[in-house]
Write a structure and sequence with these properties.
The protein has 18 helices and 2 strands. The protein is mostly helical and 416 residues long. The protein has one domain (3-400). Strands 1-2 form a two-stranded antiparallel sheet.
Amino acid sequence: MSRSGSAHLMVLWAAFLLVHAYVALAGWVYPSQPMGDVVLVYEPWATAALAGGPIVGVDESWVYPQLALVPMIVAKAISLPLIPALGASHAYLIAWALLTVGGNAIGFAVLIGRTSAHPRRLAAWFWCIAVLLLGPIAIYRIDAVTVPLAVAAGLWVLQRPAVAAALLAVGAWIKIWPGALLLAALVAARRRWRMLFAAASVTAGVVAVLWLLGAREEIIGFLTAQTGRGVQIEAVAATPFLWLALAGTARIEYSFDILTFQIAADGVDAVSALLTPAMALAVVLVAAIGATKAARGASAVRLLPPLALALVTALIVCNKVGSPQFQTWLLAPVVLWIVLDRARAAVPAFLVLALAGLTCLVYPLSYDALLRAELVPVVLLTARNVVLVVLLATGIRSLLRVPIPSVRPLTRTHEE
C-alpha cells in the first residue's frame, strides 16, 4: 500500500473513533433519554436471566428474537467489574457502548481492511457520517449489534456465501431485519443452496437450544407479540394521524404493554390491521422483481444492492413501528451499494444521510415536543417519513433499471 493510502486509512480510523466517542457521550447529555432502553429494559432482562429469574424468549414470550438476549448478557458481564465504582446503571451503559462500538470497529475493519480501494473508503466515510448524524440511537439500541454483522455479510456474500448467510441468520435471530438481506442474497447471488443450508443450520441450532431450555410457543413469540400492537407515532402510516393530533382530533397515548407511544384515533385500528399484510405484499413484490431479473441473467453486482435496499426500506415503510433506530438498518445496504456500484449509489446514500439527520432532530432532540403534537417536530417527522417513501421508490426504480444481458452468458465470473 502507498504512503498516501496508509495515511487515508489512519484518517478513517481517527474519524471512526471521534464519531463514536461523540455519539457515546451525546447519549448522556441529549434530552429524552436516548439510552433509556439500555438501562430500563436490556439491563433488567439480562440481570433476571443471570440471577435465575425468568428468561425472556424462553420462559415468556418476547418482542425480540431470542439471540437478542446474548449481547445484553455480554454487556452485563462486561459491566460487573465497573459496578463498585459507577453503580449498576452507569456501568451497564458504558459496557453497552463498548460492546456496540467494538462491534462497529470489527465491521469497519472488514470494510476497509488494508486496502486503499476508493469505493471502500467512500463507504467508510458514509458510515461515519451516518452514525454522526443519527446520534446516540446509532449505538444505544439492540439494532446496533446487527449493523456490523450485516455489513460484513454484505461484503462477503459474493465470495463467502455460506459465511455471509450464517451471519445474516444470526443477525435475524437478534433483530428480524437482516433476514431481508438474506432474502436479497438468495434471490440475487449464486450458490443459493449453500447459503440456504448455512442459514437453515443456524436456525435449526437456535431452535434446538431453545427447545432444550424449555421454550415451546415462546420460540415464535417475537412474531405473535407484534400482531396486536397499534401504530407507533413515528411510523410512516401514523403521519396523517399526527396532523390530526395537531388539530386536536387524535391523541398520542403510551402503551405499557409495548412500551411505546401510539396513536389513538378513529380508523387507526383498521390501518394497523392492514400494515402487516401490506408489508408481506411489498416484500413479495420486490423479491419477485429481483427474482425475475436474476432469472433473466442480471449481474449480481448490479442486482443485489438495490434489491437489498428496497427490501429493507419496505420493512420500515410498511411497519407499525417507526422507531428511530430502524434507520440503522439502511446503512448496510448502502455500504454494499457504494462498494459494488458506487456510480449509482449517490442518490440512495444522500437520502439515507438525510434520514439520519432528520431522525436525530425528531428523536431525541425534539421528542418531548412531538409527544405534545407541536408543529415543528410533526413537520420534521413528516419530512423524514416522506424521504423514507422516496427511498423505497428509489430502490424499486433502480431495481427495475438493472440491465438484462441481451445474450445470457454461459459461464459466470467468480464475483457473481
